[in-house]
Design brief:
519 residues; alpha+beta; 9 helices; single chain; 38% strand; 21 strands; eight-stranded antiparallel beta barrel; disordered N terminus
Length: 519
Amino acid sequence: MKYKHIFIFLSLLLPVVAAFGQTQTQRLESHVYFLAADSLQGRKAGSDDARKALRYIESEYSSIGLQPFLDGDMRQYFIRRKYTTPNGKGVDQRVISADSVDYWTQKANNVYCNLVALIPGSDPVLKNEYVLVGAHYDHLGVRDGQVYNGADDNASGSAAVIELARRLMLQRDHLDRSVLICAFDAEESGLWGSSALANELELRGLLKNVKMMMSVDMVGWLKTGHLSFSGTGTLKNCSRLIRSAAEQSGISERHHGFETSPFGATDTEPFAKLGIPTLAVTTGLGSPYHKPEDDADLIDYVGLSKVTDCLVLLTSAMASVDEPMEPTGKVSPKHTDDLPFFQGGLVLGMGPNHLNIKNSAFRTKSLPAYQLGLLGQLNFTNHFGLQVDALIDGGSTRFPLGDNLLEGESEYGQLQLLIPAQLKLILGTKDINVQLGLGGFYGYVFRADLVSGSGRNKVVQDIDIQHPHQYGLAFGLSVRMAPFISFGFTRLRALSGVDSPLPAEARRCTTMYQISYIF
């Protein structure tokens, strides 16, 4: 019995001695090499290999001395379950807490697990406020026989959070607010783990106590440039704290008010959509992102250690009584279901163009017209807006040279600044919708010419523009297929004439098929 106690004591002591016998850089390298090893087969969410990664991180959290946060256990189980919506109109998927650990022990494929640990604050009041720092530990698994180890995505972030927790535990008596340390599962599947925790905290009435949520995702390639922080516009004085931490850590940083990329998301999203200030921390996409080549030997471990230093300083400052941690109330447009008040973008259009002769059924032959320019849209509500564009618009048309239709044809062309304005009726969601527009346009013609003949007999004649101002009606239809792109058409019908050589007043009529890129 005596030797058994000695063995248990040594088994507990040796990991601690080993940890403190290494430098932070060496520990980070050890974490990444374990989590991104071929033996873990890419840590696909819900797999046995992901559970091995979780147990490793859980062991590190426990050896550091982190406390469980939810129900006396670091583990937060959750499942994906189909259910009929309350109105009975279909089946949806939602993240819910698992009923029991039996799901986990049965190794069901739809069972996932977060780790949620606590470093308690020392202030009697502020200890009930939380700074949450998290990183997802899952990756893509094996595809077509190739292992996607995910060393940068996101063994690097998981390793940084482990060492951040170690450092903060050593100075916990100086932390006024509490710090939540989280390892998220199933991020690659659709941010399921962070969604599960955000929903759980909201159900328990604790979400309002989270003063900042920071996601550490892909931080292993500082060698390519700088450490990026997106979301500083959600928390007052956040930029100042980041600059100070980066300067003390000796790294280059860039901070952005909001997350703007339409191509990806990180674990900040579920918290940001519930109104919590968030920071997405990354060294960018310089690594082999979502490729089999994302291996541990490519990670910049000296840089990763500097990133960890910076995050320790930043988290410590946020957990300090000296910082009020006041949200700005602003949210990134990508984190809200509401349309932003202003949207801008680029427009490219092409379509047929002809002239109608006033008080006549005659119309000229259509030729292609084109548009290129900027769009701006004010969204007064989610269903009503005003779009005003500024376009360079060019178009041509053909008509007979004289009264005899057999004599040949001339080509009339003009170039103008075109400003259409349409009231928009918006049907659908923020990202996928149909927009109906009705309004008018103003055009200023700054060039017009007449082309007759062809080859060596071709003659180009500049037209003296007597009436450069044009106006008319505009209506259109567009379909937003994604947050950043839409397709549609706009019909323009002039109410004033152009300076064409036709004997009667000619009015332009154009249908433009457009593609728009929305910023």
